[in-house]
Structures are given as structure tokens and as C-alpha cells.
Input
Amino acid sequence: MKARRKSTEETRDRLLDQALTLFSERGYAATGIRDIIDAAGVTQPTLYYHFADKQTLFCALIERYYGESQARLEQIVESQPGCVARLTLFATNSFASCRQDPRVARLMFQTYFGPRIPEIDGVLDQLTQRRYELVVRVMNEGMTEGVLRPSDAQFLALSFCCLIDQPVNLFSRRARPGKYLTQQLADALVGQFLHGAA
Output
């Protein structure tokens, strides 16, 4: 029974992994169920045993890869006191997640900023909102600590996220993201955010 359960879990994992590869390379709309079945080396009934349809598969994929990454980010940032340390951890962890599996970053940016697809519209909204709200909290803490001058926390959070996310978006498409998404870059971007260019 345990061997069968393990085999079932491995099949589900393989389907998610292959779907992640295809969605991140081709996009959701251009990837068909048949493409995923062929890439995973399973039958159509096997895919439908695990997932009701392509949308359900996509949602499970987002929750597994992006949702788990978001949960780790929250734990890491909350574990460290102080605005500067938390912003640095946020940048470092965002870069590390992309280095670990750049497909996740490519899929997220492609889905979020690509053409609207009604059947998956809003799937990422809750997770990206949680990520943004985490940064807003850090900005409010920074103003309370006196590290940041009084300002609009939401504007500061948006500015910081754009500063960190653009390199992730750009370098996730390169052959070796880790060559670019370094601790030095994370530190430099946090310094740029805190001190400006002038």
C-alpha cells in the first residue's frame, strides 16, 4: 500500500514538474493537456485522476511552488528584527528562490504581466498580495524605527518590490541566474533603496 501511495505521489509530482516547465516556457494558453501528458509520460486518465482540468493543475502548481516559497519568505523575514535586516532577507530570499528554480519566477511574471487569461485570472492575486503586505509591514516598522523617513508605506513597498523583482524577472530568463542574482546585488539594491542615488 505504501509503495502504491509513493508511486501515486511521484506521478503527481512529475505532472506538476512537467507542467511548470511547459507553462514557464510556452505560457498557460499555449500549453495543452496533451503536451503535459506527453512530457510526464502518463495517460490522460492518470492526469485526470490527479487534476480535474488544466486550470486545477495550474492552481495546484502555483500553490506548491509559489505558495511554499511565499510561506518560507514570511518565516525568514519574520525571524529577523529590524527593517534593514528584513529588507535584506527579503531580497536575498527572492534571489535564492529564483536561483533554486527559475521556472517559478518565469511563470509568475509571464502569468501576472502577460495577456489576461480569464480562466486563471486572479490565481496569483492572493499570494502576491500577501508578499506585498509583508513589505508594507516592514516599511511601517522602518518608519517607526526611524530608519525610513515618514512616507506612504504602500508607495515605499511598491518601489522596493519593483527594485528587487525586476532583476529576478530579467535574470530568471538567463541560463545561469545565480551568476547574477548574488548576495552582493541584493545588498547593493537594498542600499540603493535606503540611501538613493544622490
Summary: Residues 27 and 114 are 9 Å apart (CA to CA). The chain has one domain: 2-195. The two ends are 65 Å apart (CA to CA). The chain has a mean pLDDT of 92.
